[in-house]
Every structure is written in C-alpha cells, then in structure tokens.
Design brief:
Strand content: under 5%
Oligomer: single chain
Structural class: mainly alpha
Distance between the termini: 44 Å
Shape: elongated
Length: 126
C-alpha cells in the first residue's frame, strides 16, 4: 500500500513549487522531479497490487524452491523468523505474508514462525 503521508507531502511540495516565486531556471526541474516521484510511487503501487493478485497462485517451481530453502530449518527467535521470511520474500518476489502462509501450509512453518518453532522444540523435548 502506498504511504499516504508521502503521497500528501509530494503533492504539497509540487503545489508549493508551482505557486512559488522560485528562480525560473530551477522551477521546471523541481516540477519534473516531483512529478516523476509521484509517477514512480504510483507505478510501484500498481506493481505491488499486480504481484499481490498474481501472488495467490504459487507455481510448482516456487513451492519447490521454498521447500528446499527452509527444509529442516527452525527459527531460533522472533527476529530470526522475520529475517527468514523477508529473505525468502525477496528471493521469491513474494509478499512476506504469502511466504509465511505457504510455508505453514507446507508444514514448514517452524522456519518462518517462532511460535510454531517454539512448539516444535517443546514437542521434541518431551
């Protein structure tokens, strides 16, 4: 989701530059830069939305890669689990929550969810 505060700040900055008495030599450049930043943010948001829509469908190769990457791994802390999820999400070009859900669905949730890892460790110890 696009950061609403950043979007509002970019729009406010653009309005300021357009209506201000900045040196004419610099004004077009500032307007171009701010307009491009707005376009870039919009494009990034559209890409995130497209990935989220496509993210519902996991390809077999992605499932295999996910399984291979976290097979026999167990998170040692909340931070370790979160780092693992973020690393996997970056590698697979997926949303972190989607990665966590898929790993849990595959029975590999202990690698990406410390709560599950802790329960697994306790079960093994008993």
């Amino acid at each position: 989701m696009q950061e609403p505060r950043r979007l509002a700040q970019l729009h406010a900055a653009l309005r300021f530059v357009v209506t201000s008495n900045i040196v004419a030599e610099h004004k077009p450049i500032l307007i171009d830069v701010l307009t491009q930043a707005l376009r870039d943010d919009e494009t990034a948001e559209l890409n995130r939305q497209a990935i989220a829509r496509a993210g519902a469908e996991w390809q077999e190769s992605e499932v295999t890669q996910l399984s291979e990457l976290i097979h026999d791994r167990v998170a040692t802390s909340w931070q370790h689990a979160d780092e693992c999820v973020m690393h996997l999400a970056a590698q697979l070009h997926r949303d972190p929550q989607s990665v966590r859900d898929k790993a849990t669905q595959l029975g590999l949730g202990a690698a990406v969810d410390y709560r599950l890892a802790k329960a697994l460790i306790q079960a093994r110890g008993e």
